[in-house]
Amino acid sequence: MGRSVDAVKKNAEALVAATKKIGLEVNAHKTKYITVTRDQNAGRIHSMKIDNSSIERVEEFKYFGTTLTNQNSIQEEIMSRLKLGNACYFSVQNLLSSRLLSKNLKIKIYRTIILRVGLYGCETWLLTFREESRLRVFETRMLRRLFGPKGDEVTGEWRKLHNEELRDLYSLPNIVQVFKSGRMRWAGHVARMVGGERCAQGSSVET
Q1: Rounded to an integer, what distance in angstroms lies between the CA atom of residue 30 and that of residue 24?
Q2: Which residues are within 8 A (CB) of 67 and not within 5 positions of it... i.e. 6 or more apart?
Q3: Residue 22 in contact with residue 15, Cβ under 8 Å?
Q4: How many angstroms separate the CA atoms of 180 and 187, rounded?
Q5: How far apart are CA 21 and CA 5, in angstroms?
Q6: Taking the complete model, does pTM exceed 0.85, yes or no?
Q7: Mean pLDDT across 168-194
C-alpha cells in the first residue's frame, strides 16, 4: 500500500526481493494494483514494471473479501454483500423453517450468521439514504421468511406480516443501527492509528 503509484511500486519491489530470499515467487499474472482517488486523471498508466514483469492496473478487485473500486464506490460492494447474505440464508433455510427451533433461536442464527455475512466490512461503508433503504429491504425480507405468514383473524387467510409487526416481533437493533454501531467502533480504531493509505495492492505468492 502507498499514497502514490511510485510508493506502491517501491513497496512491491521490496516484497519481490524479500520473497526471493526465502524461496518464494510473486505471481505477476495474479498480481494487480488499483489507484483509489477522486481525480479522474490520476493513475492513467495501465501497468507497472516490477522485476521485469508487468503488473496490471485494474478498476476493482477483491481485497480481504471486500470489493475495492478506483472511485471508492461502495454500491457494488453493498450489493455483493447482500447477495452473499441472501445465499447464506438459503444455506441455513432448513434450520430457519424448522418448527423444532424457537423464534429466539432463529433470530440468533440470523444475527450471528446471515447478518454478519451481509455486513462484512461495513465499517468502511459510507451510506446514502438509498443504500440504507437497500439494507432495510434486505432485513425485512429476511425477517418475513424467518417469522413466516400470519393468519388473518377476520378472513382466516394467510398474509405477510406488516413492517410494524416485524419490528414488534424482532425488537432488536435493526440492520442500519448495527451498521452504524460497527462504524463507530471502527472510527475509534482509526483515530488511534497514524495516517491512512489510498493505494492497495493484491498479490498472489507461489512456491
Answers
A1: 14
A2: 60, 61, 76, 77, 80
A3: no
A4: 10
A5: 25
A6: no
A7: 88
**Residue pLDDT, tens place only, 77-118:** 899 899 999 999 999 999 888 889 999 999 999 999 999 999
Eight-class DSSP state of 162: P
Q: Where along the chain do its domains lie?
A: 5-68+195-206, 73-191
132 band by pLDDT with thresholds 50, 70 and 90: very high
Q: What is the mean pLDDT of residues 156-163?
A: 86
Alpha helices (H) along 22-114: 75-91, 93-96, 103-109
Name all contacts of 7-10 with Cβ < 8 Å and 24+ positions apart. Answer: 7/199, 8/33, 8/48, 8/199, 8/201, 9/48, 9/50
